[in-house]
Amino acid sequence: MSSLARLVRHPECRLLTHVVVFVVYLCIGAATFQFLEGHGERTLVSDLRATRDQFSDITKDCISEEELERFIEKVVSAANRGVSATRNVTMSEPNWSFGQALFFASTVLTTIGYGRVTPLSDVGKAFCIVYAVIGIPLTLILFTALVERIIIPVKAFLYFLFRKLGHLYKAFHIQLLHLMITLVALVTLFMLVPAGIYTVLEPSWNYLDAFYYCFISLTTIGLGDFVPGDNADQPHRALYKVATTVYLLLGLLMMMTTLSVLYEIPELNLGFHFYLKNDCPDDEQTRLRGDTTDASGAGPKYRKQVDDAENQAGSSSGGTYQSFQDKEVGEEDQ
């Protein structure tokens, strides 16, 4: 029993459990969206087809501006919700098939949010809010845990570069080379190559359009002006959407890994220049230093910001830096 408990507490077991929970949660979202939105879409398609037939009958004799305006409004309204009026309102697969719903759920959880296909019903909109509130933190935690695993071989490659080039170049230059290699791998494997694939699969896209889509998606901008699989004649549309979902998840992981490599280089971590500094402790920090005592009244227990600044100053004048906790131990021994 103890061995089973140790296995459950093992980090890799926890990660695997998280992956399973994430996949199940994603599928639950897709199935729920399919159930909530499928009927509304079918009704919209039926109404639009009836309106189209009615328009055809009217135009046999004449058509007024008001009738034409109403027809156009219905067509535009349906198009904004992902239903095309062309080809007699026929699509290879509905927008809320399971594959389509899985793709939509992934764009919600990753905050890409294209906006081309959205919930139509009030219940669907309410579920989308609750689903996102729970799912977005779950996704961020999972991605962080996965990046921690991915970064291990990435750092091993950096140490390999240090061993081979450390006697020739400075550490910063080697780190910069490592970052460039990682960045080239990201752009090549998750932007240039997929852009070529999308150019073949999407007849209306040129290579720039496809590369633009890859970049906008992996940076989670998600403008929604280009979305794969939106062509009404797209074969195997649901499978195509599932494959795109997998691509987006892997691409976002690689993007986060590249950012982690960037943040490991202090000279390129520009955010450091905008962080709060402890060089000059303010009056509130100084007041807390004198006021903070432990439960027994023995004196201050935690003065990290002030004490660190003082100790570092003493170290620069020839002293030795010693943490506040070590000083406390010495005082108790005396």
From TrEMBL:
One of its GO terms (molecular function) is outward rectifier potassium channel activity. Glycans are attached at N88. The keyword rRNA processing does not apply. InterPro entries: 2pore_dom_K_chnl, 2pore_dom_K_chnl_TASK, 2pore_dom_K_chnl_TWIK, 2pore_dom_K_chnl_TWIK1, K_chnl_dom. It is a multi-pass membrane protein. Residues 93-150, 187-263 form the Potassium channel domain. Residues 286-334 are annotated as: Disordered. GO terms for biological process: stabilization of membrane potential. One of its GO terms (cellular component) is dendrite. Keywords: Cell membrane, Cell projection, Cytoplasmic vesicle, Disulfide bond, Endosome, Glycoprotein, Ion channel, Ion transport, Isopeptide bond, Membrane, Potassium, Potassium channel, Potassium transport, Synapse, Transmembrane, Transmembrane helix, Transport, Ubl conjugation. It comes from the Eukaryota. The chain crosses the membrane at residues 15-36, 96-117, 129-162, 174-198, 210-227, 239-263. It catalyses: Rb(+)(in) = Rb(+)(out); NH4(+)(in) = NH4(+)(out); Li(+)(in) = Li(+)(out); K(+)(in) = K(+)(out). Homodimer; disulfide-linked. Heterodimer with KCNK2; disulfide-linked. In astrocytes, forms mostly heterodimeric potassium channels with KCNK2, with only a minor proportion of functional channels containing homodimeric KCNK1. Interacts with KCNK3 and KCNK9, forming functional heterodimeric channels. Interacts with GNG4. Identified in a complex with PSD and ARF6; interacts only with PSD that is bound to ARF6. Interacts with UBE2I. PANTHER family: POTASSIUM CHANNEL, SUBFAMILY K (PTHR11003), TWO PORE POTASSIUM CHANNEL PROTEIN SUP-9 (PTHR11003:SF249). This is Potassium channel subfamily K member 1. It comes from Littorina saxatilis.
